[in-house]
Request: fold
Amino acid sequence: MTIEIRDTIRFRLNEREVELADVSPVQTLLDFLRIDRNLRGTKEGCAEGDCGACTVLVGRLNDGRLKYESVNACIRFVASLDGCHVVTVEALAQPDGPLHPVQQAMVDTHASQCGFCTPGFVMSLYGLWMENPKPSVQEIEKALQGNLCRCTGYAAIIRAAEAISSIGELGKDPLVAERERIARQLAALRDGRRVEIGSEKERVVLPGSLDDFAAVLEANPKATIVAGSTDVGLWVTKFMRDIAPVVHLSHLEELRRISVDADGITLAAGVSYTEAYPSIVRRFPQLRELWDRIGGEQVRNMGTIGGNIANGSPIGDTPPALIALGATVTLRKGGERRTVPLESFFIEYGRQDRQPGEFVESVRVPFLSDADRFAVYKISKRLDEDISSVCGAFRVRLDGEGRVADATIAFGGMAGTPKRASNVEAGLKGSVWGETAVNAAVAGFERDFTPLTDWRASADYRMLVAKNLLRRFYLETQETRNVRIDRAVAAAV
Amino acid sequence: MNVMQPIDRIRGGVHERERHESGHKHVSGTAEYIDDIAEPAGTLHAYLGLSERAHAEILSIDFQAVTSSPGVVGILTADDIPGENDISPAHKHDDPVFASGKVEFHGQPIFAVIATSRDAARRACAKVKIGYRDLPHVTDVVEAAAANYPLVIDPLKLERGDIDAGFAKAKNAVQGEMRIGGQDHFYLEGHISFAFPGEDDEVTVIASTQHPSETQHMIAQVLGVPSNAITVNVRRMGGAFGGKETQANLFAAVAALAARKYRRPVKVRPDRDDDMAATGKRHDFHVDYKIGFDDEGRIEAVDAVFAARCGFSADLSGPVTDRALFHADNCYFYPNVRLRSRPLKTNTVSNTAFRGFGGPQGMVGGERMIEDIAYTLGKDPLEIRKLNFYGGGGRNLTPYHQTVDDNIIGRIIEELEASADYAARREAVLAFNHENRVIKRGIALTPVKFGISFTKTEYNQAGALVHVYTDGSIQLNHGGTEMGQGLYTKVAQVVADEFQVDLDRIKVTATSTGKVPNTSATAASSGSDLNGMAAANAAEQIKTRLVRFAAERYGVDEADVAFEPNVVRIGSERIAFADFIKSAYAARIQLSAAGFYKTPKIHWDRSQGRGRPFYYYAYGASCSEVSVDTLTGEYQVERTDLLHDVGKSLNPALDLGQVEGAFVQGMGWLTTEELWWDAKGRLRTHAPSTYKIPLASDRPRVFNVRLAEWSVNREETIRRSKAVGEPPFMLGISVLEAISMAAASVAEYRIPPRIDTPATPERVLMAIERLRGAASRGEADG
Reply:
């Protein structure tokens, strides 16, 4: 089969269609907007996807539906935008026209001080408003986890978010009113061709299909695979690494599929955290808090399950929980596939069980049985948009006599990889599930892990918290009150 | 001429809840920051090459790969500096632009690459090969003291009464120590400067600086030209918080140096990580204290040493550590007291101004002493606080011999205690803790008293320039800079009020050393106090001329000429402002004036530790309740109530924003914001991925914020308002104290919890473990 090739990237930028033949593999959307297009309303605050000053919306068709999501332009590569609609703050109001309702709300509530973070907040709130015109305070806070403001203390911004719908009608918003027309235009940009741009040294490839992706990767085993670019983006913006040749996959709908059968859920590797959320929290309500605390909204919109696994972080947002749930990953090279338990995919720090030319195609998470007790706890310096100092996931199955029939416990932040606490598991198995067994089993952590001291936490703290999380897990299975801080308490403004 | 019907009042006068003058531009992305300015053709970009050693001799620098990197135009080192290689604001000659021969901290600039794009300059910088010979280094303040590191500047001692007699009389004495962490400013707009070469020796620099005059002087010093050759402009900063008071000078000097050498516009903007590594922060402190007190908790004597991590140079460490001592008393009378500062050199970036300027660290130290007294005696800390407030016969003298004569803390506390329902909630917290093993709660109500004025008296002056144009529009310029605090809005409100014209008739223009010279930093919360008065003075001068003109022209008494809303009333006739101005112009009346102001009454003798360094005090109080998880140390602020004094507010909406924002920033400083250096002396929390400032979800779950609307400044400040920038920062202390109470609960509130800051979940959990251990060993009897 020969595949047709296109040598340009095509996307829509605000009101105009853009076609680019010359896109460097390391060109970020933020630099493109600010330097190439002189659209300077979008700001650079950190160049690592943590502050949100560069937030723009990216609209993308998935299963025929056009959805706009907030993303960090600083770590998004231009080449990944093929077929997308990029919306920047400049699109919201004409220079001499009235402000957009989101903007007017921000002005009315005195929600800007220095104003540098403000366009990013406006775009995040705009994205939220389109999906949820009357959000709760908690929903607003969640949508703003990826936006830092150093001046206001946020109270006025929350007031603005609550006021938007009293200022403007969602139905009159251009992106809402003209959704179908824009969707048709974006659909017309998609021709199923493989996109290849750049010279040999600066090659960027957007495969035409999943099979094409497998073929391209097999032919270019040293290529950098870019999914959400929440990690690879920093290789470029912070470490100035040369990442060519690059193979993008975020445009492949086949890698964004979620399937559920009687025994479990299968997530294609390119499924973003946001896309996975509804299915995950319906089937695994215990994962809701963890999922809500992965990165910020922009990172959840960009980052993928497959990327989170394939990059082999010793901490990982999802691996400890997925290991405890007994997840498996399917790897593919060309037409060959193999499936391995997730825990064995992580070999040691910086090394995973992935061959050259091979990629993570999907992750399968089996459902819990009724006898399973399961919980995952993320401990971090700041509650939201922080990397875990320790992340512990616990699954225990009791037999009819209250003894531990099976235990799977996995931790991030305690070793060079996400790793099981096998000594603790062994210590629990066969014991009566109770404080005595728990207090005896925690000693196993000392044999399972030798954590490091770094800027996130000391080794002593990590060890103590690991032990205490097992205690917390036990107390929660006893339905004791006030075992954990009630994060669900509604904030009043 | 039109005869106008009188209207009630102008739009946007003083005391109105006026919107930020740039609000509509902030939200639409059209507010122009320096990096948004369209670059002229030929613009070059500079990028700084930083030290990768904490303390080392530079043996060799190999620029070969740098020079051959694409786009590189040239390299600047110390050898390229025509003037002095020094930008020390303390004039200690200890702050080079580029290190030469030796580096003194990890992140110190050594050279700059000039290239055709920022990316090219940055990539080239990374290709340098520098040979170092490592020297021993110290990053920590306690280690610096142990290693006999020098002081970067003369220390200060404040002394009053007789501490030996005080301790002899005191029935109880407690000795302790505390570590107080620093803080990165994390302004969202990082440092940036854009320099444009002019004719002869002229350079114009657009800089993100709080102190355009000093930036101007430093550029002149580095270039070896007189100050009159340099113009520094700044329209707005994307946040500053003290981080751009002196730290902008480096970037401005480098941009100017390159612009002069290459005769092309040059912009310099470091990456966030480099910004955080190469620029100073809030000082970390170590406090050694001893307090004597009676059985009720009344303080008899205080002896404390405040040692600070100053970094490799003096910068502003002198006045910062001074201000720490000035605020170690907070609202409390110390009958016998000795406070000493120890501004220690370390091999870290030179620490600098940051909202509160040492005051917060002093105040946290003072509050730690109160906490120790309370938990030693087993009492509510608020009871100890009230017992020791300034007030009553002979109890109004500060350790620096200034009399507190505007004290309103009693009323503030009383009102907040009632509105926050403190007493009942404290009982509920105690009951909750009795019933729950894992989650513990804490509640604390803490006061703030903050002294207003630069402690260096000469800085307490300001200038303004007001032009009235013939169409009746007004242009306002003053020496203050806009960093988001709303200074431009407030001063424009003052001028609108002076002329009694609607606010939209006034345009505020970018701060420029060419318009108002010899200005002070927009710092010490003084922006509207100083510049508001200077602008009012300029307006008064023009009004005086106009009144004289009107009286002569219309043959009325000067007393019969009045500026009324959008009109001038002359006798019984009312003339539209613009028409009146037109006639004044025709009569050749000067419609422009330079205003000036200097703060009265203040004086300070540092060598004696005596004087009246502060014109007045701003007050406030904060009540916070927290939940703490004793298994993990995680916490959540459940509710905070703030009541803050801004005098008679110039703009209650902007002031409320300052109070809310300052509280959250103060809370962040004391909780999640941690600066962490590794063994090699490298700061590892140098980006938002590792350095955690508060998010929206860190706000207190219930957040009630009020201004003390009844407060009026006793001094004749601008419209009787008070400064607002810094004082509410210290309202964040209530969160720390509430966490302390929750931790103390595991030892029945009988052992001082002594949590160092920032109180990260780790420090909280480790304190809880320590307290549990001490309680089980029976150490709970104080």
